[in-house]
Amino acid sequence: MIPVCRLEDLPAGESVRLDLEPPIAVFNADGELYAIDDTCTHQDASLAEGWLEGCLVECPLHAASFDLRTGRPTCLPARKAVRTHPVSVLDGTVWVHVESAQPLPATAPHTAAAGQGSAA
User: Fold this and answer.
1) What does pTM read for this prediction?
2) Best CA proximity match to 108, nearest among 19, 14, 9
3) How far apart are CA 115 and CA 51, in angstroms?
4) Which of 52, 56, 106, 116 is deepest in the core (most CB within 10 A)?
5) SS3 call for 8
6) Is 80 helix (H, G, I), strand (E, B) or coil?
7) 22, 18, 31, 33: which is closest to 86 by C-alpha?
8) Biggest alpha carbon distance in the chain?
9) Dihedral angle sign, alpha carbons of residues 43, 48, 52, 56
10) Cβ neighbours of residue 99 closer than 8 Å, sequence gap 6 or more
11) Sign of the C-alpha dihedral, residues 83, 75, 14, 60?
12) Are 15 and 27 in contact (CB under 8 A)?
């Protein structure tokens, strides 16, 4: 398990990007927490910087949309799903459960706003 942030530091409609290899984005979608690989499968763009609407996140580069519950794309141009990861909250801290992600040296998580538009 990898600690993400305090639950109160991830309000509804926001996301946190973890600088791991591969990067992971954790989203608070209307009070439900989801974690997915952060890189769009269509092109190299951070999904944490995308637009969140309900359980969908829209890539900021070419508007591919992914379902946070399954990781599956919901429209073109993306055709391949992103991996999903279990999320839990223990003692007020959000944790993401990953098997193969490794922290990158000298990096820290940062918050990127979601909910800046609507998913296609």
Assistant:
1) 0.82
2) 19
3) 5
4) 52
5) helix
6) coil
7) 33
8) 40
9) positive
10) none
11) positive
12) yes
Residue given tokens 């999904």 in the structure block:
47
Q: Report the alpha-carbon distance of residue 55 to residue 32 in Å, rounded.
A: 9
Residue 53 in tokens: 């609407």
Please report, for residues 57, 90, 105, 116, the alpha-carbon distance to residue 87 in angstroms, rounded to integers and kept in the order given: 17, 10, 23, 23
Helices (H), 17-58: none
Read off the pLDDT of residues 81-106 as tens digits, 9 standing for 90 and up: 999 999 999 999 999 999 765 554 44
Closest CA to 71 of 25, 118, 21, 113: 25
Tokens of 28: 């608070």
Q: Cα–Cα distance between 95 and 108 in angstroms, integer? A: 15
Q: Do 68 and 55 meet the contact criterion of CB atoms below 8 Å apart?
A: yes
Q: Is 90 exposed, middle or buried (0-12, 13-18, 19+ CB in 10 A)?
A: exposed
Structure confidence at residue 52 (pLDDT): 97
CA distance 45 to 80: 14
